[in-house]
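sanity check this:
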Amino acid sequence: MTTRIGLYLQDNIPLKSAIKYVQYAESRGFYAVWQAESRLARDAIVPLAAYAAHTSRIYLGTGVTNIWTRNAATLASTFYTLDDLAPDRIICGLGVWHEPLASKVGVSREKYLIAMREVVAAVRGLLARETVTMRGQWVNLTDVQIDAAHGRQTPRHVPVYIAATGAKLMALAGEIADGVLLNYLVTPEYTADAVHQLEIGATQGGRTLDQIERPQLIVCSVDSLRERALERARPMVAQYIRQQPLVMRANGVRADLIERIEQALPERPSAQQIEQAAHLVPDEVIQAVTASGTPDECRAKIQTYLDAGATYPVLYPLNPDIHSFIDIFAYGY
């Protein structure tokens, strides 16, 4: 069991309300809050700055910002600034973004493994107050240094995490990152395989698995009535099957179910289409990739991810009452 609990916030919560939830999570002993930046909606940096200004202890991470639209120098200065607001509490979570959004805004994700390696090295060097010169395939810097006129004139401790789902990026995270943010809507078996890839990468980097933090994002719908909790999770699972069919196949979702949901959901579905497609998702799929059910059932499912190798859970609440959700999981188990 773990006493560390993280909270994951998406853009479906008004920002002023999210600030209050983060403050409440801190008061109830939560370890960390991760802010999503998954769609072209709410970026992670502005909310994180707001959370930093209104809290004093809780760790705050981007979950995650992409490596393409801010160059390495700008990323470093961004997290340097966040660290001024919340010294030694900021986590730099980086990802390679996703399709089709990246292509639609003119971003090519080719050679993303090389790009991630270069960005992590450059950001680390700059946050350490080094003068960085790099001639990479993606990062090109010449005598660049964080030129801080204000704040602490010292190297900053901002751990760099990589959000990884595939085996190659997971291995790279094991080799070079301080931690990995494990994806949501996966099975514990998928997490165990991911942690194995992470360990392979760690060995290549001359490290051990224990040196790498492994928070696990977990979609969580909790209710005294199990059926109500499952119904709350069903639309999200249906949409994710449509958006990430390869990930869902890797998690054991049947090909015929994926095909039926793809036929039922266009790229931009209406609320009615989502509701209709949700009815196609059986309970066992929801239970496989989420923690949904009674409080005890959710706690038991969360534990299976920890048993698979995650170091602490980061809960993505589907409950409308976030305060009550936080109370259920306060101070671990």
Remarks:
- The chain has two domains: 6-227+290-329, 228-289.
- The CA atoms of residues 291 and 300 lie 8 Å apart.
